[in-house]
Every structure is written in C-alpha cells, then in structure tokens.
Batch of 3 targets.
Target 1
Amino acid sequence: MPASAERYLEVQRSEEFAQLRHRLRSYIFPTTVAFIVWYSLYVLLSAYARDFMAIKVIGNINVALIFGVLQFVSTFGIAWHYSRYAAQKLDPLADALYKELEDGPSTEPAATTPDGGKA
C-alpha cells in the first residue's frame, strides 16, 4: 500500500532526509559553480583573448581546440565522479529512507512524560 501524505511529510522532516539533502547540495552547488566558471572562462577567452587561443601547441592544434575538448572531458569527468559520489554517499541514505517509507509507520515507541502522557 502506498504511503500517505502525512508519512511523506514525516520523512521529509526527518534528520536522515535533511542529511541526504545536505550531502546532495554540498556536492551539486560547488560543482555547478566550478563548471560555470570554467565554461565562462572558455567563452571569455574565445571572445577576448583571440591571440592566446590561437597559439598553436602541436601542428594545427591550438589552445582553443584543447580548451574545447577539455570542456567535454570535464563534463564526462563530473558525471563519472557524481555517479561514484552518489553510489557511496547518497544512495545508501536514499534507499534507507525509501525502505522506511515503504515499511509503514515507525515502530519506535512514542515518547512519554513521567506522568505517563505523550510528549
């Protein structure tokens, strides 16, 4: 039976979900900023440093061509690294949360006050 909306909200408020969200964001945001800076550098150099980008390195291969190829290499590198990061740091937490969500309500006893009432 699918979990109720209340159960989803309970999981969303949990410490485990907050930790999962923190781990994801602590990887995604810096990596995105770094890639945008790297890409912007390539674009700006191509537009304003044409002499530098035209420097021939080997034969007809110039700096611009090398930087362009490195854009693809860095994209695939980021994707590869993210898949490893997710498998090690994110997936175990996400799987545990999913299992908890699918298994139904928590089996932990409710906290009680010294007089026997619920906290």
Target 2
Amino acid sequence: MAGSYVLKKSVDGQFYFLLYSSNGEVVLNSEMYVAKASAENGIASVQSNSTQDDRYSRNQASNGKFYFNLKAANHQVIGSSQMYSTTSARDAGIDAVKKNGPSTDVKDEA
C-alpha cells in the first residue's frame, strides 16, 4: 500500500495537506494556503520534488530536536516534518517522504 495525501480545511478557513506513509503515520505537513487550489498545487509540488534529495534541508531546532523541510525548485518550503530525537530518525522520515511523496492518492476532506 502506498502513501496518501489528505487535503483539509483549518478552523480559520485556510487549507493544508498532510502526507501519510503506507503505515498511516503523518510524514509531512504543508504550509497554510488561503485558496484550495494553492494547496492542490502544493500537493503536486511535493509529488514532483519529493524524490530529489537536494530538495531537503536537514535542520536542528533550538531545543535540540531534528527536522527537515522539503523545498520546491524555487527554494520555497512546501512541507515540513515532525520533530525527531535523532538524525537517523529524521533521515528515516526523509526516506518515507521520498517513498510516499509520488503517490497520486489524494483524499479531499476540505
């Protein structure tokens, strides 16, 4: 079973999406978008950029936790990970996005 995207609408009316891995865990969170079409474009951007290693920035937060951002060709962040306690866990998260990002399974819950 491949991963999937879920498109959602926040309480303030903005749109966002989550990328789930095949085991049902969230592996990527999007930014907030004013328009639903922009969120859909964000999904398309993750689908096309997620397999390219140079699109990931590997970061450490001020609290010592590790995370990553997925960026589009224009260097705009299109998705962010959760916080991880180790770099190896963060790198496994990147691998999960690389594997599940190309999925065309999109559930519209917006």
Target 3
Amino acid sequence: MITPKKINAFTFLKLPSAWWAGVRCKTISEESCTVKVRHKWFNQNPFKSMYFATQAMAAELSTGALVMSFIQKSDARVSMLVARNEAVFTKKATGIITFTCNDGKAIQQAIDKTVATGEGQTVWMESHGVNQDGVEVSQFRFEWTVKKKS
C-alpha cells in the first residue's frame, strides 16, 4: 500500500528536485491526496513568493500519487504520463501551501477501464493550492493518460 512515507522516499530517490524544494506528501486515501510545501529562499522567485515550478511539482504529486496508488492496487502493468497541464495563479504563494486533489474516483475508473479493455484512457485531475489562511493561491489541472502495457 502506498503511504505518505513511501511517496516521500520516492521523491527523494526519483524526484530529487521536488524533495530539495520541500515538497512532501502528508495524506493519501482512496479519494484524495494532500501535499504541502513551505515557501523558503530555496524555492522562491524574484518577487519573494513561491516559484511557479515548485507549486507545479507539489500539485502534480498530489495527482500523480493517486495515479500510482490505483495502478498498484490494480495489480496490472499500467503506464502513466501527463499529456497536458493548465495552471491559474490567484495570489502570491508564501508560507505553507497545501495542494489537495480529490479525484481518486475518476482515476480509479480510468485505470479499471484500461485494465479491462487494454485501451488507453485520459482523465483530467485538479489540485488546488491554499495558504495557511485557507485562501486559494493556485489551481492546477493535469491530463493524465494511462494505458495497460502489453
């Protein structure tokens, strides 16, 4: 079973730029995944807020961890890839930013369908970043593609 500890070890080994930027998974369940990152000197932009790429790494991990979790549960060989992404920034990201994706059911259905049919599937997953005051600072959408390997 995928846990936040295992996801964070994965980022250290396979996504070191996310690890060093401070991206950490906090919770994962069947429905959602929460990832946090703290604004600090290392991940800031020239405007003294969090660099957009750091936000993108955290947002993508909140969606991708759900994809990995359901692939593992399917017990099938399934490839995963981000085909497209979109982002909207609404406020300067400072302090601790929490990214949450609540699209676990959507990716589970796509993985179940690709395992059953062998046909590739796509699903859009959203992650919302909020600051410590609960104010949304950014919103990301990722189009994930999943396909059963032959």
